[in-house]
Amino acid sequence: MSRKRLLFVTLVALLGLVSTIVGARPLSVIAPVTEVKAAEPLIIKFAYTDPGGENNSMDPLNQPSGENHVMVNMSYNRLMDLTSNFEVVPELAERWEANEDATEWTFYLRKGVKFHDGHELTSKDVVYTFQRVLDPKRAGDDTVAGSEGASQLAFLNYDGIIAVDDYTVKFKMDAPAAELPLMISIKNTWIVPAGAKGADLRTSGNGTGPFIPVDFKPVDSPHRFVKFQDYWEEGLPLADEIHLYPLVEAATRAQAIKSGEMDFVQIIDFANIAELENDPNVTLLRSGPSTSMLGIMWVDTPPFDDNRIRQVFKMIYSKREVVDTCWLGYGVIGDDNPINPQMPYAWRPEEEVPIGPDYETAKKLLAEAGYGPDNPLKVEFYVSEQFPGFTCFAQLLQQGAKEVGIDFQIITSPVQEYWDNVWLKVPFMMSAHVQRPPFSGLSISHACNSLYPETHWCKPEYDELLLKASRTLDPDERIATYRKAMRWLTEEGGDIFEGKFFTVAAARSNCTGYVPDVQISRFDVRRVTCKR
Amino acid sequence: MVFARVVLLRALWASATLLIVSFIIFSAIEILPGDIAARVLGRYATEEMKAEFRRMRGLDRPMYVRYGEWLYGVVQGDFGDSLVSEFNVGEVILPKLKNTFLLALYAFILYIPFSIILGSLSAVFREGAVDTFLSTLTLIGLSIPEFVMGTLFAFIFGVVLGAFPVVVAINMAQSFGEAVRMMTLPAVTLAIAMAVYAIRMLRDNLIEVLDSDYVRMAILKGVPLPRVVLRHALPNALVPALNVTALNLAYLIGGVVVVEKVFAFPGIGTLLIDSVFLRDAPVVEGCALIISAVYILANLFADVMTVVLNPRLRTAR
Amino acid sequence: MTSSAATRKFVTRAELGKSLGRVRRLPWTLVLGSVLLTIYILVAITGPLWAPFPYDRIGTGKPFAPPNAKNLLGTDQMGRDLFSRVVHGAGHELFLALTSTALAVVLGGFLGLLSGFVGGWFDEILMRLFEVLISIPVLVFALLVIMAAGLEASGNEWLLVGVVALVWLPRTGRMARSVAIDLVTRDYVLVARARGESAWSIVWRELLPNATGVLLVEFGVRAGYAPILIGSLGFLGLGVRPPTPEWGLMISENRANLVAAPYTVLAPALALSGLVISLNMFTDGLARVLGRQVKRF
């Protein structure tokens, strides 16, 4: 056979193969055409930012991408919900009360609430949920490794969580917990059915929430959720189906809402706001101050063990410039402590913080600490673009450092590597915090027994302040105590900036019902709907 | 038969290569700083949780035991379970592989005629305006990073013209036509990225063949030029282009991470990179072996075809 | 691969002179490519002297200012002058691309030639090793190496140079080896061998000079692709350290702003593409002069 003929035969065979594959319809990967119903179901396409991938899970105990676990929000409820101001409002618990010294709290459950599998919510489910958070193995679930909730709820007593009757749950503790309803409304305490195992929950997501996951697979996107017909809130949810699309690229998200492919986008990068503002088909939705951005220094490690050096890094940049440049104005400045300065209970400096950098004082402090032109301070600052503006902030700090003669190297890390390989492992780096109320915001990384000692801040007197506040029943007195702690951190702590940015979401103008929350972990789509 | 022996030998080498690749990747993930337990459990995981997770997944055993176990499974056709989601690796990879295969197929269907036609035009009108134009165009084409090209396409055709979707939710496609429309932008991006190489390659090969004595002879004998090109020159020039095509195929299966990211396309490249970041060894292994195997097979195929189609080489070997 | 390489004609130093004489005028791609490259090199060397702003000066204009008299190419989000950043970036870009590629071509070239000349087991093992390395997807390979290098090294320019060199090394090595295979049968090599010259000496004095043409073309091709690879690594968060004005990093930093402020992406993208185009043109022209094909990958 001549080679030309052979080539010809090969080509024909190839073409044949190709056309067979292409021509075979329907292709197996393409979903079969859905049957047309009498009324077209209302499907909402929602783009969110977290790729999650294989890490995606419908188990509330298995929520590694903690800042952003949108999916659990759709299928579960908690006892209480939190508003953007951290007010506790009833959800599965209709009401609650504490005894006099706040060592015993009683919650009265809503009646007639159904789980997706049809069984009715009772106190057994609630007790199991909390016991599973505290110690999964002891609660009878050996399929999960545990969660951060265990340490956050460490003040609870495993055996003190009691089902009084079918609709009453009691929490008995050894010490008072003045703000218990707030303290137990965390990202791991979504109510699961009694006896549910992590291995099953991961993909089935059996909760009491408004939407049921359909054929949930961690890596398969979009994730489809259908309306739970027996949802306990009258008339909700409004949409028949919600499809979640993980769109990691900011440019893609902006383009997707502009072109109308998506009905909602969870986060719009600040740079794209100007473009979308002028688009009549797009509505921008803005939250209040949400996640914070901060630099952290180990207060026990040279050169940061010298408070003068810590103060230098707090004054070599302009707080206003960070907000205006890195967030294009979409945020608020911070007071170098974790609490949002706009909250009524926040401590504020008596004089307004200097907005511009103070190079002169910084140079003076540096000289006092023994650094000068022939003995320059050298630091390495670790950063990754966890949220928009992070690298920008690092570079503003770097510019200020240059101004006062500090050798300032920025080391970047891929986003996925950061919390594991960098965080808590280097003395000078960037971090982010979801907004928390004072009791947890001030303790999560600043208490001596903190599991996440970001700044190595450990003062027994500070811990005493927090403990005192958590046991104080009088709100004004409690706030005054918390303010002392805030002020201490501002004046001596290792946190830089702690400004908070606004979360900007976008909707097509025919769509309504989504309000971006200050806590990025709260994702409420019950009222989301679109006019078609 | 000598030929069969060569093929057999190559196949043996290919399996050995795959074995070594699998070992390199397994140990690379082992020595990388970073811990799968921390990745899976998140930022606030405690040491006890991490230890418990490692125990549950059997990661507390020495590496060679785990590698041996994994290898034993692979020999029996079981690529193990994902360390993250505990799904079987096949279950994790197959849907992505299907998507990538579809995209690759689409890109390939665009790529082949595109390359052949433009390459031939360029060669036939060599040094002329068409050739200069095309070779400038291809030079520019191969100088633009894929992520820039993809983003530009998404912007122009997706947003400004609204002709194609910028988000490729391929598993939501309701019909064949919709799937094709969804994949058009990434497929075109990929096809262009591949074609620029092939066009230049084909052009140079074709010119060489057109300069050869037997083609000159055919032209002298009065055979019309299009016929000479189609019947005589092109088939001969295609042989060396097979190599580029084989390599392009390998690129398509594995090297398209960046394009996948731009269009949020759920393909195997993204899965691979994400799994490296998660330190999920079995999934990384599964993806990498598929990609390596495609690369090796494509090369093998190209080599065999070259030998088959070129009698001179068949005897020389 | 190897079999198709054998079909290609390889030109020796002696033949190079002839082929240069044969070409009446230099290909336009070579001329234009050289001119453009010269401009790039001049900008890289002198740019820091005349660029209007330092590359890291924040607030030279409003964030995302469009091109104007003060900021010729506009500004990025931090109000940094894009023109100055692009100009300053030329040096980084050329350094990264050329050093890494040179390293790969020299090392790979030498190993390849030696392998082709020595043959036998050495050749077989080295080539298999190269094949193994090549069959791992480029980005994954680079990713693994960078992450294994650890945190402190991440973003270090020399690390990137090393990684890119390591990615190219097996590819250039294989290319050089195929040249050597062709050359070892030539008379002058046989003569040198008969004279009893050592393997090193033959590789150094006979093979290397005659393979220069091929290696040069190889160099051009790789150098043209290096900025794209480095840019792609930056895209995944593994590139150089900010505020280095590396164009790939600038593209990925500003990708999100493509719609809102296209110039922030277009300026570095055009500069990068321009450099790659001129490298490719140069290589293309060189290859034509040398009478060989440009083989990519």
Q: In words, what does this structure look like?
A:
The complex is a heterotrimer of chains A (532), B (317) and C (297). Chain A has 532 residues and is an alpha+beta fold. Chain A is built from 17 helices and 19 strands. Chain A has helices at 3-23, 70-75, 123-134, 136-139, 149-152, 180-183, 198-204, 250-258, 273-277, 307-315, 319-326, 359-368, 390-403, 415-421, 438-441, 460-470, 475-492, and strands spanning 43-48, 80-82, 88-90, 93-98, 104-109, 161-165, 168-172, 211-214, 223-227, 241-246, 264-265, 282-297, 331-332, 378-383, 407-412, 428-433, 495-508, 511-512, 529-530. The model of chain B is unreliable at 313-317 (pLDDT under 50). Chain B has a domain at 97-315: Orthogonal Bundle (MetI-like fold), CATH 1.10.3720.10. Chain C has a single domain (22-290), classed as MetI-like fold (Orthogonal Bundle). In chain C, helix 4 (82-118) packs parallel to helix 11 (262-290) and helix 9 (199-235) packs antiparallel against helix 11. Chain C is elongated, with a radius of gyration of 22 Å. Mean pLDDT of chain C is 80; it is low at 1-11.
Keywords:
heterotrimer; A: 532 residues; D-Maltodextrin-Binding Protein, domain 2; Dipeptide-binding Protein, domain 1; Dipeptide-binding Protein, domain 3; 4-stranded antiparallel sheet; 17 helices; C: mainly alpha; MetI-like fold; elongated; disordered N terminus
Sheet-strand content of chain B, in percent, reads under 5%
Radius of gyration of chain B from the CA trace? 24 Å
Q: Which pair of protein chains has the largest interface, and what are the residue counts? A: A-B, 68 and 71 residues
Instruction: Label the CATH architecture of chain C.
Output: Orthogonal Bundle
Order of helices and strands of chain B: HHHHHHHHHHHHHH
Tell me the Rg of chain C in angstroms: 22 Å
Ranges of chain C with pLDDT <50 over ≥5 residues?
Answer: 1-11
How far apart are the first and last residues' alpha carbons of chain C, in Å? 11 Å
Mean pLDDT of chain B: 80
- Briefly note the CATH topology name of chain C: MetI-like fold
Largest sheet of chain B: none
Biggest sheet of chain C, open or closed, and with what strands and sense?
none
**What is the name of the CATH superfamily of the domain at 97-315 in chain B?**
MetI-like
How many β-strand runs of chain C?
Answer: 0
Total helix count of chain B? 14
The total count of strands of chain B amounts to 0
**CATH superfamily membership of chain C, which one?**
MetI-like
